[in-house]
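note to self — DONT lose this again. spent like an hour looking for the file last time. sequence + predicted structure for the chain T wanted, 220 res
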Amino acid sequence: MVTAVSGANATTTTATNSTSSSSNGMISSDFETFLVMLTAQLENQDPLNPVESSDYAVQLATFSGVEQQVKTNNLLETLSAQMGLVGVGQYASWVGMDARAAAPSWFDGSSPITLSPNPVSGADGAVLVVSDADGNVVERTAISATTDTLEWNGTATDGSTYPEGLYTFQLESYSGDELLSTDVVETYTRITEAQGSANGAVLLLEGGTMISVGDITALR
């Protein structure tokens, strides 16, 4: 069951989430392959027609270059992880606040969940669809096509309370009987932890959902 809420105050924040990829595994594999090949060449060369010293010089130079590239990538990976930890400090103050994001929200069995629906342009009606952690639809409720925040109190039509757990909310936007769009509804969920990763800071929400900083559209 949902209840309309008048003007909720929220501080909007934006952030970017940088992504990076590492070829360290591939380089390490090539490095090991190079060692095996060079060793096999030394063991099986014809003693009457040995490899020219100039050829060995070239191979050893290649060996050195590959080794240096592996070390460089390991260093970059370490620096990236350290930068991720530094980023955590910026978001430590967010722990304990409610973040608005298009992510599953935790229902504790009593405290209502604040929803921030966003029906598409041209919609004159909407249906809120609530699903549990297993993807089962537990509720479909007709609501106004409005961007006003709503409170979902977890009460079924028979008066019983849904069990605690993660719930996902979707909004079906209608024009008359025509379905225009189905979109995930943003919800407010408590931030319990900030963590660092190679790709930057990530936030752990109540209930165990992990999101990137860039997924958050508002705080309160």
